[in-house]
Each structure stands twice: as structure tokens, then as C-alpha cells.
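User: Small ask, check this?
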Amino acid sequence: MTEIKLSALNLVPIREGQTDKDAIDDMVKLAQNLEKLNFERYWIAEHHNAPNLVSSATALLIQHTLEHTHSIKVGSGGIMLPNHAPLIVAEQFGTMATVFPNRVDLGLGRAPGTDMMTASALRRDQHNGVYEFPDEVEQLATYFGPANQQGYVRAYPAVDKNVPLYVLGSSTDSAHLAARKGLPYVFAGHFAPQQMQDAMEIYKSLFEPSDVLDKPYMIVCLNAIVAETDAEAEYLASTQAQVMVSITRGRMQPVQPPTDDLQGLLTPREFELAKQRMSQSLIGSEATVKEKLQNFIAENGDIDELMAISYIYDQEAQLDSYKRLNKLVSEMNNN
């Protein structure tokens, strides 16, 4: 088995009773704690018109996190390219890489990260953003590359900064792109596990070596909640279930405390969907999650990195979950 690196994704959610500033402060505190645990990287999402999330100005949040940490890599999970001109993205991330060398990641997504009405208000054009994604990824690679390979328009100070690019995906489309360009691939298994196995297989089998990578680099993002017992983890995971149901209902409510009566809060269909999503997540005691992760690898093949996202209401319980996950991944790597 390949040694697995461990990282984390944060959507910067607002917990019930919190302000926007509280959520941003929590984002920084979690980054500082995960840095102490030697997590590989800490990524921040991009979402718009979501009253329960504070992750709309992703580049600003990345800079803020970099300023309050020392060594952990901080990046975007991801920058949604249909919303942004590649030149501006390169200038922003090139500037951060200048101030914080070797610590900035640029994960790139082809979706707008919002509903279609909001996307229309965000987009530089109304139709072509998704279809131009491959060309725009190539533009960014050029902007961050050496001066002698660039044209007249350059993204100073991004030139020659070589900010690492990662292709994000929730379907097989981006797997083809990442493989063809020889870039690392990140699959969003935390919210779209349906095509994960196919996407991973496509990426690995079609991968073409590049100046960036000589072999595939596969990151999988999964929901992870680890506690002392399976029962405690499942109780904590009732918060995750409420988050997901809130999204499907279009309510976008703040992160709710856990409940012993999840079935009473949801419709029968919602409860079944919540159970299915929980079964696809790394939820349980350390022993249970270790077995789930081993089974995941046996079914889907080796991964290079696990990126965990953890919707837990209590911040101490959330940090404890990350500590336990870190411990069991270290045990797997050392066996």
C-alpha cells in the first residue's frame, strides 16, 4: 500500500449561534491545530450566495490562514475557474507564493460553486466557462512557468513561481483532463461518491507523465468523523446529516448540534439518504475507520492522499476526530 498523506478541506461553515467572524476565527484555529499534527495541506473551498458558509472570497481566506500559520501548505479546494479570469487568479496566487514560498496550492474546479442564478451574476461570460476549463488550466500553467515560455501578457509576480496546480473533480470529465495534462487529481468523494471509482480508474490508467509528475497523484476527499466509539461517532455525524439535508431542502442553515433523534427531524426518504451518505463516509471508532479506509483502498486502489472534511458541531470533538484520524493513518503507513 502507498503511504498516505493526510490533509483537510474546510468550507468555513457557520455553526448555530456564531457570527461570520467566529467562523473565520475557527478556520484559522483549526489550521493551526492541524499544522501541529503535521497535516500535509489545508484547503479552503469557494462557495457563493450561501448564508451558512463564509468561503466566498477564497483567496483572501487563504492569505489570512497563511499569515497565521508557519509551515502547512494552504490552498484552494478550489478556485472555480468559470468565475475568474485566469490572469487575475495567477496574479493573486503568484503574490501569495511570493510572500509565502512553497506553501501555496491552487486547486481548480470547473463548476461555479453555486446555483445558476448566482453563477450568472458571477461569470465573466454566460455560457462558455465550463467548456473553457481545459484551456484556462493551461493558461495558468503558462502564467506560473518560466518567462521564456510566455507571451506578451504575463501575470506578474507569478512568473516562474511554479505554484502547483491540482484538478478537482466530481465526475469522470476532470479525470480525463488531469490524466492528459499530467496533473494531480482530487476527487470530491465527500459529496459526489457515485463516479469516484470510475474516475480514479480513468485517471490512473490514462495518466501521461509531465514536467510536474512522472506518475499519477491521487487525492480523495471524504467525510471523516472519528470518535472513541462507533456510537459516539454516529451521534456526532448527525450534524453532517443535518447539513446535507439542509442543502437538499434549499435552507442552508448554520451547522446544527448533534441529535439523538435524527429520524424524527427528517422525512423517511431524507433519513435513508442520510444513512447512505454516512455509510460512504469514514465514521466510527479508530478501529472501524481504519477498516473502512483499508476496504476503500482494496475496492478503489491506492491513494496518495486523504483529504478529510469534518462537519462536527463541537470544536474540541472536531479536533479530537482529526487527531484520531491522524493516528490511524500513521498506523496504516507504518504497518
